[in-house]
Design goal:
The chain is of the alpha+beta class. Strand 3 and strand 4 form a beta hairpin. Helix 13 packs parallel to helix 14 and helix 14 packs antiparallel against helix 16. The radius of gyration is 39 Å and the shape is elongated. The chain starts with a helix and ends with a helix.
Length: 751
């Protein structure tokens, strides 16, 4: 065997050795991964077992009935107190064990377990025959649940007074059925009642008002306090007024003995003097008002929004001149917007007049009411904006059109040429303002196209840098791979410029504005700001700043028309409402997040588009088609506005067309009855008195099927898009249009 063959064998052996070593190394790594995973699992099991053992030792020493369960409610361990209270719990669930004291514990346990899953713990007091049963649940790190059941009635007399156990309480179900009564209520009424009809003839029982109730010992006066209803049940507390009132005497003469229950009631209560000073408040009221101290306060310092002086309202309530004395007010809290319904009732304390204010959280109710009112207002303003824009577009069409006709007869050197240019420019500015109104009402005409946001922002960067100035840095950040979107490029640029200008104005001392684009995949529906986003691919654009921020109470108003946080003369309040309208009309979403003192971030979400961006449009000069020669085109012009009709007819005749005018659809159809008349094109307004444009065109096409159509309107194309789509060879030209816009559109249709 030669040296070459030997070398080959040695190389082959070396290669096999390397391959074997590679297999051994891979196997070793795989074994190591498996071992590490097994050790991690064993360590986690050991940790959980040790944690559960420690918890079990603590629960075993607890004097309160306590049980450990898994997340499904199956009992793992119960201490001696629980066994004594509920009996043998081996193999049972928590719900089955509590049936000893509760008829239907499942809804209560479900409510508590859900709250514990969110906050870590939950507590609820339930009325039973012997008093109250307090159930507490805590979520454990090992994944289990710790349940503690405490009989409050077994406490001392002083403790029961602090917790309100001596306060008469009834649990009320649907149709005013009395489901249960505690011992204090039985002692007060003298018997077990089944309906509120037996309790009082003064129906309905008003929150915070004094009512006379029927007992076995005669009529007694009580102040009625109700808790918020839960699962169709509510708790009603009766504060007995000491002393006896003669027949016909106004109830509520003295409440001195009732103040000892004040802090135990689960309903926010305030004790006021007739001048509005807060004399006393219970714990729920202090939590609602965020009053952590006992400093003297007045009611007008805690809430506002009555529309009149709170002092006058209190004086009327103290004099008994204002009926039920119930009003909706807004708390003066800086952290969030909270509305309360305040019910006043006149009482006497040690012979002096006082007022009891019962506070009910009405934030959800007022929020829904505000949303409804806002939607009604936005709809009304939208309809008004659409109508005004339609009429204004007709005026602008006539003004700018006749200005174009005058410019054709004047050279730049003429003295009047500059004035005509000024008229033309201001007419264009007015048209832009009308476009903002239409964008707010989502009735503008969009020209959507497939866009790559990276290219759009790149083209816009130069203009944005000029807008922000030298003190502010503009930073753009793009995701490497980004889906296209479908939107109107010009309108999208307007939205981005508006957001950047607002960010600039929020940082007068300078700073950084960051624009970031990225893709977002939603696998499940996402809820945000009362909007549900369906699953799918989205493209996100974030415009953030480090300015002064927007207060929480103003954050939800920034998209309202004519609302602005800027000083008078610095903003119209149409910028963000226009941006909102453009984004929503494009099928997207816009959200705002802001922290006072830290900055604001606007997020735009657009559905992703799978198609590649369309190629750039050719220039206007290259796209122009030579005009039709004189006499080669006959146009039937139908327009009810005389100034617009006069401009359009002159413009078309100047381009060599033969124009037949009609001021209504009926006149147009009458003109077409002449069969010898040749018509090549219909140019018609959409909205007219009597028969509208699409209707008469469909009627005319029955006899003249080959005629093309140009629809013009000051309304958005989408308002009649379906009707136009059913008419062949038809295009839409929005008002206001210029002389060139009209003649080029007519020329293209005739070609």
């Amino acid at each position: 065997m030669g040296l070459g063959a030997a070398a080959v064998l040695i190389a082959q052996g070396t290669s096999d050795l390397h391959m074997s070593l590679a297999f051994v190394a891979a196997a070793a790594v795989l074994i190591a991964v498996v071992v590490i995973g097994w050790l991690g699992t064993r360590w986690l099991d050991w940790h959980n077992t040790r944690h559960m053992k420690a918890v079990r030792e603590l629960v075993a020493q607890d004097v309160i009935a306590s049980v450990l369960s898994d997340t499904t409610g199956e009992i793992i361990f119960g201490n001696a107190a629980a066994t004594e209270r509920f009996g043998d719990m081996q193999g049972q669930t928590v719900a089955a064990a509590l049936r000893v004291v509760l008829a239907d514990p499942a809804p209560v346990l479900l409510r508590l377990s859900r709250k514990a899953a969110l906050t870590g713990h939950a507590t609820e007091d339930i009325v039973i025959r012997r008093g109250h049963l307090r159930i507490t649940v805590m979520r454990l790190d090992s994944g289990g649940l710790l349940w503690r059941c405490q009989d409050i009635a077994e406490r001392s007399h002083i403790q029961r007074l602090a917790l309100g156990a001596d306060l008469p309480m009834l649990t009320i179900g649907r149709n005013d059925a009395v489901l249960s009564m505690n011992d204090a209520a039985r002692r007060l009424i003298g018997e077990r009642i089944k309906s509120l009809d037996r309790l009082s003839t003064e129906r309905p029982l008003q929150q915070g008002h004094v009512h006379r109730i029927s007992t076995l010992h005669g009529q007694k006066s009580c102040i009625v306090i109700e808790s918020q209803p839960t699962l169709g049940r509510r708790e009603m507390y009766l504060l007995p007024l000491p002393g006896h009132q003669a027949a016909g005497q106004q109830a509520g003469t003295d409440l001195h003995e009732g103040w000892r229950f004040f802090d135990a009631l689960p309903v926010p209560l305030l004790k006021l003097d007739p001048d509005g000073a807060v004399l006393q408040s219970n714990l729920p009221a202090r939590e609602l008002l965020r009053c952590r101290d006992t400093a003297p306060r007045r009611l007008s310092d805690l809430m506002e929004g009555l529309g009149r002086s709170i002092a006058d309202w209190l004086a009327e309530a103290a004099a008994g001149r204002s009926g039920h004395n119930s009003e909706f007010l807004r708390l003066t809290r800086a952290d969030t917007e909270v509305f309360v319904q305040v019910t006043l009732n006149k009482v006497h304390d040690r012979g002096k007049p006082a007022l009891i204010a019962v506070l009910t959280d009405a934030t959800e109710l007022k929020t829904l009411e505000a949303q409804f009112v806002q939607s009604q207002k936005m709809q009304a303003i939208g309809e008004l904006a659409g109508g005004v824009a339609h009429d204004f577009n007709n005026l602008l069409t006539a003004i700018s059109g006749h200005c174009d006709l005058l410019l054709l007869r004047h050279d730049p050197g003429d003295p009047e040429y500059g004035d005509l240019v000024q008229i033309h420019q201001n007419a264009n500015r007015a048209a832009a303002l009308v476009g903002q109104l239409l964008a707010f009402s989502r009735k503008q005409t969009l020209r959507p196209e497939v866009l790559d946001l990276r290219d759009t922002l790149s083209d816009l960067t130069h203009l944005l840098n000029r807008l922000v100035g030298e003190k502010i840095t503009l930073t753009l950040s793009h995701e490497p791979v980004l889906q296209a979107i479908r939107a109107d490029k010009r309108q999208l640029e307007q939205v981005l410029m508006n957001l950047v200008v607002n960010a600039r104005d929020a940082m007068l001392g300078g700073g950084e504005i960051r624009i970031q684009t990225e893709g977002l995949l939603l696998r499940e529906p996402m809820e945000r700001d009362r909007v549900t986003l369906p699953p799918g691919n989205y493209v996100s654009v974030q415009v953030s700043d480090h300015g002064h921020g927007i207060p929480a109470d103003k954050l939800q108003k920034v998209f309202e028309p004519f609302y602005t946080t800027k000083r008078t003369g610095e903003g119209t309040g149409l910028g963000l409402s226009t941006a909102y309208g453009i984004v929503k009309q494009s099928g997207g979403y816009i959200f705002v997040d802001s922290v006072v003192g830290q900055g604001t971030c606007f997020t735009l979400l657009f559905p992703g588009h799978d198609l590649a961006p369309a190629p750039a449009h050719q220039s206007t000069a290259a796209a122009k088609v030579p005009a039709v020669r004189h006499g080669n085109g006959v146009v039937l012009l139908v327009e009810d506005e005389a100034p617009v009709r006069a401009f359009a007819s002159r413009a078309l005749r100047l381009r060599g067309y033969t124009v037949i005018e009609a001021d209504s659809a009926e006149q147009a159809l009458s003109t077409l009855e002449d069969e010898t008349l040749e018509v090549d094109l219909f140019v018609t307004d959409v909205v007219m008195p009597g028969m509208d444009g699409p209707t008469w065109v469909r009627e005319a096409l029955k006899q003249r099927p080959g005629v093309s159509v140009v629809f013009v309107s000051g309304h958005a194309e989408e308002s009649f898009g379906d009707a136009q789509a059913r008419i062949p060879n038809s295009v839409f030209l929005p008002k206001p249009f210029s002389l060139n816009d009209l003649t080029e559109t007519v020329n293209n249709q005739l070609q």
